[in-house]
């Protein structure tokens, strides 16, 4: 069997605070046949100096720079073009990876010749590496999780491994119009073509804090979730769970309802209230009203 090699893609913008911890966790991997491709997205702090030191200290680390600040999906698509191995992993610049991550992945690849992606479990942590309480409506069992993706995203994007041959089927693997939901959308696209394996091992310490992209853009985050739920509803997924999909749509609408109330966005608040009231009647089968709603709240 040909020796397995894995490229790990990391994007970073002004990430000096946690970057060394993250890179050190990669260096501590028991599996050694990896390369770390880092895209420096126009950082203005000491990130560039740190990255230069990492690149000089290890032939396994390659750093590339963007000419201007780009949205993360665009940076990820740029980075994927620089990854040449058959298997590509994602590691966020503020997360910490378990030393067994890639050795576990190697063993899984040897047992499963055909898959689109492998995802693992995670432990949420704060800025001081303190473990946080994990939240989630649904418990996901180990195995193939294509069905689960139709109503939830059961993992952290960081720590995922993709089959490079699957990624080649998409001109732009990451949907660049989505600010926070691009990772889930990619998994939905892959799920149409091949199986996605969930491994119930805590490979990633996933950092959650107030300055994260999702935390700072709660309304956009919720609308991106809605867009992905609509995509799942419209997709060719053979095993889509429509009942849970509809339930999650209502949950996201309720979150938006509260956010618009807090921010005193009256027109959006009223439009969301009307949709929540009528959704069980007119929207279970016809998603036109949801699509119309998303267009309107972006205009208002």
Give a description of the structure.
The structure is a single chain. 44% of the residues lie in helices and 17% in strands. By secondary structure, it is α/β, with parallel strands linked by helices. The protein has 2 domains: 6-209, Spore Coat Polysaccharide Biosynthesis Protein SpsA, Chain A (Alpha-Beta Complex), CATH 3.90.550; 215-299. Strands 1, 2, 3, 4, 5, 6, 7, 8 and 9 form a 9-stranded mixed sheet that branches. The mean pLDDT is 91.
In terms of structural class, how would the helical and strand content be classed?
Answer: alpha/beta
Shape, please? globular
Oligomer: single chain
Report the strand count: 9
Distance between the termini: 57 Å
User: What is the top-level CATH class of the largest domain?
Assistant: Alpha Beta
Low-pLDDT regions: none
CATH architecture of the largest domain: Alpha-Beta Complex
> Which percent bin holds the helix content?
40-55%
Name the helix and strand elements from N-terminus to C-terminus, one letter apiece. Answer: EHEHEHEEHEEEHHEHHHHH
Average pLDDT level: 91
What is the count of structural domains? Answer: 2
Supply the CATH superfamily name of the largest domain.
Answer: Spore Coat Polysaccharide Biosynthesis Protein SpsA, Chain A
What is the fold named in CATH at topology level of the largest domain?
Spore Coat Polysaccharide Biosynthesis Protein SpsA, Chain A
Major sheet: size, sense and barrel closure?
9 strands, mixed
The portion of residues forming beta strands comes to 15-25%
| Rg, alpha carbons | 20 Å
The helix tally amounts to 11
């Amino acid at each position: 069997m040909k020796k397995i090699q894995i490229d790990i893609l990391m994007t970073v913008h002004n990430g000096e605070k946690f970057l060394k911890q993250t890179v050190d966790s990669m260096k501590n991997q028991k599996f050694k046949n990896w390369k770390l491709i880092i895209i420096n997205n126009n950082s203005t702090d000491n990130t560039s100096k740190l990255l230069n030191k990492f690149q000089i200290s290890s032939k396994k680390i390659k750093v590339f720079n963007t000419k201007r600040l780009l949205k993360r999906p665009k940076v990820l698509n740029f980075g994927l073009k620089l990854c040449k191995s058959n298997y590509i992993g994602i590691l966020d610049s503020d997360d910490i990876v378990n030393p067994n991550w890639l050795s576990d992945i190697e063993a899984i690849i040897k047992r499963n010749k055909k898959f689109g992606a492998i995802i693992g479990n995670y432990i949420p942590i704060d800025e001081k590496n303190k473990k946080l309480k994990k939240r989630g409506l649904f418990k996901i069992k180990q195995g193939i999780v294509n069905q689960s993706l139709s109503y939830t995203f059961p993992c952290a994007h960081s720590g995922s491994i993709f089959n490079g041959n699957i990624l080649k089927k998409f001109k732009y693997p990451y949907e660049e119009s989505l600010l926070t939901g691009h990772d889930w959308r990619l998994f939905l696209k892959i799920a149409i073509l091949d199986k996605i394996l969930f491994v119930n091992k805590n490979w990633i310490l996933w950092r959650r804090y107030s300055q994260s992209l999702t935390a700072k853009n709660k309304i956009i985050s919720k609308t991106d979730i809605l867009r992905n739920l609509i995509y799942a509803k419209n997709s060719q997924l053979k095993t889509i769970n429509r009942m849970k999909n509809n339930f999650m749509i209502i949950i996201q609408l309720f979150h938006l309802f509260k956010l618009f109330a807090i921010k005193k966005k009256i027109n959006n608040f009223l439009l969301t209230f009307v949709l929540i009231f009528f959704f069980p009647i007119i929207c279970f089968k016809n998603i036109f009203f949801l699509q119309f709603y998303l267009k309107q709240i972006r205009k208002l």
